[in-house]
Specification:
282 residues, two-stranded antiparallel ribbon, Rossmann fold, alpha/beta, 9 strands
Length: 282
């Protein structure tokens, strides 16, 4: 039942001592403090920027990639540790886990490594390329998660999966990549069920159009296309935008889990629709 006519409040409505009196609020836990993080796919793009952002926030970081020269440059810039590994090879992932134990207990794993190959349609799908994308995106994340999960379950910590809006939707000439990303997204979504009640937060970050020219160039081999893609929208995301979201999610109190964060530029509505764009993103 209404208490009276609708109106804005005025100073006369204020009564001394009235606030949340009588309402019991839960105690908010302190934010998580930085520790040691492992960031995969760190030689460029989102992985590079995530390493930079974590270091700036006080984290120790082991940056992982296949290119030693890039890791050496990143270490020089940020003071991170670097480890060269092909994460599709279980023995190399085991070597990474052994190295991490020397540095200190890992508090966060950021599964960022991945990639796309080609723009083939379903009718002309290349099974070899599709299988490679599954390996790059799904099996690498599986291997690293398996390697670090026992320690995280014992001590507590976080596992971040950087998937994509391609894990939420699809677009023409993209089924190989979106299929791999949908499969990768099943890892965090299933882990939350399997680890319920344990002190491990499972976080999924789904970026939209991020200006990472190397990613597109590796996918297509076409420099002109790679450059033109980002010119279709006034302000695509930068890797640093995604990194900021990751750092924020990791720093929240331990009872707060960001299940899924979708980050897109304002001018993007889904995986293939951009402002003033009359053809799919490919």
């Amino acid at each position: 039942m209404s208490e009276g006519a609708a109106r804005p409040i005025t100073e006369s409505d204020y009564v001394e001592g009235v606030g949340n009196s009588g309402i019991t609020e839960p105690t908010r836990l302190a934010p998580m403090t930085p520790g040691l993080a492992v960031v995969t796919g760190a030689s460029s793009g989102i992985g590079w920027d995530t390493t930079v952002a974590l270091r700036a926030a006080g984290w120790d970081v082991i940056a992982v990639a296949r290119r030693a020269d890039r890791l050496a440059a990143l270490a020089k810039v940020t003071g991170c540790y670097g480890f060269v590994a092909d994460l599709a090879v279980p023995e190399q992932v085991e070597a990474l886990a052994d190295y991490a134990q020397i540095i200190g207990p890992v508090r966060a794993l950021v599964n960022n490594a991945g990639g796309a190959i080609g723009l083939d349609s379903v009718a002309e799908g290349n099974p070899e390329g599709w299988a490679k994308m599954y390996e790059m995106n799904v099996l690498t994340a599986l291997n690293t998660t398996k390697a670090f999960l026992p320690g995280l379950r014992e001590r507590g910590g976080d596992v971040v999966f950087v998937t994509s809006i391609a894990a939420l939707d699809t677009y023409p000439n993209g089924a190989g990549y979106t299929g791999a990303k949908h499969a990768e997204a099943m890892l965090p979504r299933t882990l939350r069920l399997e680890l319920l009640g344990e002190p491990v937060r499972i976080i999924e970050i789904c970026p939209g159009l991020v200006q990472t020219p190397e990613f597109t160039l590796n996918r297509t081999g076409d420099v002109d296309f790679s450059e033109s893609l980002y010119q279709r929208v006034n302000h695509p995301l930068a890797g640093a935008d995604i990194a900021e979201g990751i750092v924020w999610a990791l720093g929240l109190p331990p009872n707060v889990n960001i299940d899924q964060m979708v980050i897109k530029p304002v001018e993007q509505s889904n995986g293939y629709t951009l402002k003033r764009l009359d053809q799919p993103i490919q």
